[in-house]
Amino acid sequence: MLCYFVPVVGAILADSYLGRFRTILYFSIIYAIGNILMCFAATPPISIWPIQMTYIGLVLIAWGTGGIKPCVAAFGGDQFHLPQQQQKLQQFFSLFYFTINFGGFVGMILIPILREAFTCFGDDTCYALGFGFPAALMVTALFLFLLGKPLYRLKYPKENIMLKFISCIYVSHIRYNYSMQPHLKLYVLQSQYAVKKKMSVNGTPKVANHWLDYAEDKFPSKLIMDIKIVLAILFLYIPLPLFWSLFDQQGSRWTFQASRMNGTILGTQLLPDQMQVINPAIVLLLIPLFDKLIYPWFGNLQMLSSPLKRMIVGGVFAGLAFIMSGLLELKLEETYPVLPDKGQSTLNFINTLQCDVEFLAPFDSTITLNSGLRQVFNVSAKNLTKYELYLVAIPQCWELHLKNPTLSISINTSEYQVNTLIVGSIGKDLHLFKTDPDEFKKSLSGRPKLRVIFIRDSEILKNVTVTLESSSGLQDKYFVPDDNSLCESTYMELEPGLFHYVIRNRDDPDGTYKSSILLELGAVYLLMLREHNGLIVFHKIFTMTPANKIHILWLVPQYLLISIAEVMFAISGLEFSFTQAPNSMKTVTIAAWYVSVALGNLMVIIVTQARLFRSQAYEFFLFAALILINMVFFAVMVKRYSFVVLEADSSAVAESAIENQENYPLIKHSSLNGGVYALSGVSISPRMKSGHFSKRMPR
């Protein structure tokens, strides 16, 4: 989120001190240093304080990319001349956004391949290469950017526009407040610039059309007009964060959805995080489609003719995407594990004996536990609840020569807890083993989870190992302790596919007990083993949580809708931010656009932490309703907008090295006018230089 707040700093430096070229250059250097530090942190021979170096690298990357963000789009826009090249400018923003998504698309595919395909420094993966490759690209890009300097049209600020911006607002605000107090005899404060001045004409109080006009005697009318337009644009930005709060959930909530789905495609497993590639891939296809076909076709119908209208439609598509994700989530919830609710606990019984067992419990009548099966019960529970259980081995169990076929035992449980209780024996006594609190939730990565539980009935077997071998050669081993009756492993996340498990011990190194299991995405498994008199008398795989059944490609419709929303909203918003802002404050305006992205991220964090709904589907529907309502308000704000024409390039000049003249060898032109939007309710000062005019145009 830091990289979306830093653009304000980069914008102030660009518009008031350094200019856009130098700001891009300096922050690119910071960005490159951050990438290099990340590479060093992942390189064991070089790494010094790897954790600290990683944090420093991430902060530098956030500052570097944040400082660049508002300047790159504005710098690219500077190379065009309006209004003659308005069409080319629109194409530029589409191409600009195309390259961003192309870079993201290639990075998502290439970086994991580089990391996994190569080994270095004795590790199975090479994170140094994964970080080093982007660092090398950034240094190369910086070098190419410098080489192109003679070809750029460079503009540098001639004054501290941000200081004047703030000063004008401050003076106007103070004077406006004083003018609203009748007992002060209509005196208004001149701030630090001069003594008080009585604003009247022939004894009649002077009434300003706009509160900023109270500073018109101390600041140029052009500056006041620019500030009015910027404030009007910022006012229009108020609804924008909600769109980004939806858009940015692709990398969190939608990836989480993907982890609950079946990713098998033609025998290949598609992992949840790989679904994020769909968005940039679709955007790459949609950008030329919209520019060459959809926008021209709707333009002939006098529809979608302005960036603001496109943004409204884009917001509606975002709402439709979240309606789709909510409907999909309702279907996915049918495959989720049944976890205990508030005031409940889950008891998971497994009978490993070769006969049935009956038990009496206060939460139910007499219950029969069938041999080799599991049964699940949800019981009432508070912070700590005790249950007395009474087990009886039915007559068939007498063949096991149990000395004591009955058992009375107390079980402690608590709210939301899942306890696994295993019926077995120790010697000739019936016994009930209680494991550590269990976890039936699916893994965040979507990979299958497996846990091994080994019950030892004698001291005969030693050095027992349980080996899991996949068809691709991957191995995981669990070493069973020799001194415990109940041995349990932690959950292991494994790759989906066919696995063989082999049980070996000191006297059987080749493994007599073997079997296979197909581990599926999203499932949670328990490998239950019981030893008796030196033999493995029970070994079975239990599926504690079912595998993902709904195919992952059902995510494509909502990704298509959100990608359409992105093309219509984000590209149009960047175009609007540049073309409608005053020339002296274009970077600041684009920075405000990126701040709206940060606020959207913050909204997601707040809603997530609030946990308003137990069902994720209802949260998706809430976001969909909010964005649709938000777009209604946004449409009303857009309706109040009118088109205002003002002078182009009036507040920026070239650096002194070229005698205060613009350097633009790529595009030669004379001074012409560009357009900006302003609220129709905002008054533009009529005192403009010769050649300035205003004109209302259709929205």
Overall body shape: elongated
CATH architecture of the domain at 344-545: Sandwich
Distance between the termini: 33 Å
Number of strands: 25
Mean pLDDT: 80
Major sheet: size, sense and barrel closure?
5 strands, mixed
CATH C-level of the domain at 344-545: Mainly Beta
Strand content: 15-25%
CATH fold-type name of the domain at 344-545: Immunoglobulin-like
Report the radius of gyration as a whole number of Å.
34 Å
What oligomeric state best describes the polypeptide chains here?
Answer: single chain
Structural class category: alpha+beta
Low-confidence stretches: 183-205, 650-699
By CATH, the superfamily of the domain at 344-545 comes out as Carboxypeptidase-like, regulatory domain
Number of DSSP helices?
14
State the helical fraction: 40-55%
Organism: Cephus cinctus (Wheat stem sawfly)
Keywords: Membrane, Peptide transport, Protein transport, Transmembrane, Transmembrane helix, Transport
Family: Belongs to the major facilitator superfamily. Proton-dependent oligopeptide transporter (POT/PTR) (TC 2.A.17) family.
Subcellular location: Membrane
